[in-house]
């Protein structure tokens, strides 16, 4: 009975995926999942932060584990991260990666709403004018890169992933990444070079590996759910191990950056560098821009630059709150599971 129920459940899930694909294109599904995931994670981490702040005066800080508010935020986080993870199976990296700006935008708006400060129009314009301008610029940039982003998307079967890996452009790209990573790591560890750009370049290089492996793992999982089993192929295990390792080390370097430098600056610079390396990784590894016209690529670049500018403006004059400000979600995979706390 259990075997029959499991097979019927897989068949039902597979039927749902097929029905969605008949009515919506893969890119749209992936884009909507990424937007929904980033939006939900920002809200959930804000709820968890509120739980921490309300219990800040108590001696036993572990009591937040017993609050419904914290657990509600935790459940939302899991749902949002799951949506982000699955989005990589449907949409190109070049579309999903910059959508982390949605998380920054949502968290900034929530922080703005929770401040509850009364100020004169001149003071309001001085303190929040650039931030609100950043909202509109980010929204416009998001529309551009989603509209003109690459549409090519292949089914990530194990054989296709292996073909990508053994191709000379990917091998050359990985070799250059390894050399650059080793040089930066040497200066950071041996020479004690703790410049923000050096640390975040290490994060971005690891992030490019993360997005490649996340997309591969997510794509093979979705195909397996649809009935085309890929999990028994060795490449799945290799990609999964590389994904987990890159996530862990990326989190460590990002934590160092937050300790040594201003969190708002870390957020904006990390978003820019991680997005650039993620897009380049998608272009080299998955050949996402091969069939795109020059005009589309130019408009996509313009949209990405606008998002970079918008995120910079949202964090440049960020005012530290006295009581509460939500977590800000930063997808190290731009999809991954790193969060920055702006307090």
Automatic annotation (TrEMBL):
GO CC aspect terms: membrane
Compartments in which it is found: Membrane
Top-rank taxon: Eukaryota
Parts of the chain that traverse the membrane: 28-48, 69-91, 97-115, 127-146, 166-186, 193-214, 234-253, 265-287, 293-314
Membrane topology designation: Multi-pass membrane protein
Pfam families assigned: Mg_trans_NIPA
One Gene Ontology MF term: magnesium ion transmembrane transporter activity
InterPro entries on file: MFS_trans_sf (IPR036259), Mg_trans_NIPA (IPR008521)
Principal location class: membrane
Keyword annotations: Membrane, Transmembrane, Transmembrane helix
UniProt record similarity statement: Belongs to the NIPA family.
Protein name per UniProt: NIPA like domain containing 3
Organism: Oryzias sinensis (Chinese medaka)
